[in-house]
Amino acid sequence: MAEHFTLRLVDSRMLAPAVRHLGFERADGQPLAFIPGQFLQIHFHYDDGTATKRSYSVATVGDGHSPVQRIEIAVSYVEGGAATKLLSGLNIGDTIEASGPYGRFCLQDSDTHPRYLLLATGTGVTPYRAMLPAFEKLLAKGDREVVLLYGARNETELLYGEEFEVFAQTHPGFSFYGCLSRQPRAVPRPNDRPGHVQSVLQELQPAADRDIAYLCGNPNMVDAAFTALKEFGLPIPQIRREKYISSR
Question: What number of other Cβ atoms are within 10 A of residue 70's Cβ?
């Protein structure tokens, strides 16, 4: 159930040249109950006093089901953006207003298909970071597979990329593909792919009896991947979508 609360900044670091990782705790000391895949809304005002809000997926890696004390998000900076002005100016100890959690871009207990196809661009990868503990439990059963296709222009923009690489190395059944559309890594890795994430689907050959797909990030990627997956025969209920739209 969604609540309104005050968040206090306790951690901040740059993930990429234009993306900042922010860690908050509730000012009232209470933990946040959320389902991995859900998002918060940050409430603030434009310079003219008009109220507005922005949505950010919770990136916190907890145990997959318990409330968390640390509330982490990844924020893309938009030139001239009102939310960018607010969040880029926060110092440790500063507070903002928020509400949540919201959304249904979550794993479902009723899913029994053997493979999860996760596609993301930009900060659209953050819900998958929060889902890692849930995938760990699924993979432990030995009858599931998880493939994460993450698109970026270059390796500096693969947010949390090393965390996903380590998870793949330590969890058989989890594969991480870095799809680099502009510039390859200086030292390429075996699962790197050139081009956009949806172009790798041909290699993976999605099938209706095998796959559940999750698409999160740039609307153009989400739409292109949605079309491609339907052409492979996936029914619409097996394709979950969350579009990230940059707002000023």
Answer: 15
Model confidence pLDDT, tens digit, residues 192-247: 898 899 999 999 999 999 999 999 999 999 999 999 999 999 999 999 999 887 66
Q: What average pLDDT does this structure show over 137-143?
A: 92
List strand residue ranges (DSSP E) for the chain, in order. Answer: 3-16, 19-26, 39-45, 51-57, 71-76, 95-102, 115-121, 145-152, 174-180, 193-194, 211-217, 239-243
pTM, rounded to two decimals:
0.94
DSSP characters over 206-229: --TTTEEEEEEE-HHHHHHHHHHH
**Distance of CA 173 to CAs 21, 113, 131, 209, 215, Å?**
28, 14, 15, 18, 19
φ, ψ of residue 240 in degrees (nearest 5): -100, 140
Give residue 78's pLDDT band: very low, low, confident or very high (50, 70, 90).
confident
- Tally of CB atoms within 10 A around 102: 13
Amino acid at 105: F
By the 10 Å C-beta count (0-12 exposed, 13-18 middle, 19+ buried), 49 is classed as exposed
d(CA 68, CA 59): 11
